[in-house]
Amino acid sequence: MLAEAPYFVLPAGAQATVKALHEREVRVRVLTNSLASNNQLAAHSGYAKTRRRLLENGLELYELRPDTDAFRPGWSLRSGLSRAALHTKAMVFDRKAVFIGSFNLDPRSELINTEAGLYIESPELAERLTAYMATGVAPVNSYRVFLDPNGGIVWETVRDGKIVSYRDEPEAGFRRRFVADLVKLLPIDSQV
After folding, report:
1. Does the pLDDT at position 142 exceed 90?
2. DSSP 8-state symbol, 83
3. So what's the pLDDT on residue 111?
């Protein structure tokens, strides 16, 4: 299963599903916003609380870099002035079917918002969406997020042809990281 979602906050049950799929050798790969590319600190904080468990459960995780042009709209002169941010909500299942819609993978979309989406069984469309999604996870567009052997979280990307690793949320200044960490302490999980 491949997924792109700007706000990715899986509840415990869905996290367990990721683990069960991984144990059945089903690949689950997700591209979501990094702290630096996310326009919603509360949503990112909810996601960040689950990130380690998702990685431990076998999820392949990528976070969008804020300097990529891959998802920047080109229809406005002002679009070039803003940081990149992922807005796609799409999934590919077994390269045979797709889901595209407004549904974020978070409690807010599940329980509060009114969302819509299309489930389409089409290997051709699934293949095209898979190719599109490959752009997002390319090393020049995203950070590959993984656990190092000591259990620390590492973000890895390519800059100027060289692999660059980070041990903290990349390209997000101290203030942004501090505020995101404060928001993690708030009891708002069902609202993000």
Report:
1. yes
2. P
3. 67
Collapsing DSSP states into helix, strand and coil, what is residue 125? helix
Q: Is the distance from CB of 145 to CB of 154 less than 8 angstroms?
A: yes
Q: What is the mean pLDDT of residues 142-151?
A: 95
Domain span holding position 177 = 2-191
The Cα 176–Cα 133 span in angstroms is 28
**Tally of domains within the chain:** 1
CATH of the domain at 165: 3.30.870.10
Q: What distance in Å separates the CA atoms of residue 113 and residue 102, rounded to the nearest whole number?
A: 10
Residue 72: the pLDDT is 53
- Listed in sequence order, the residues at least 6 apart from 9 whose beta carbon sits closer than 8 Å to its beta carbon are 43, 46, 47, 50, 105, 106, 107, 108, 189, 192
Report the C-alpha gap between 73 and 91 in whole angstroms. 21
Average pLDDT for 76-96: 72
DSSP 18-33: HHHHHHTT---EEEEE
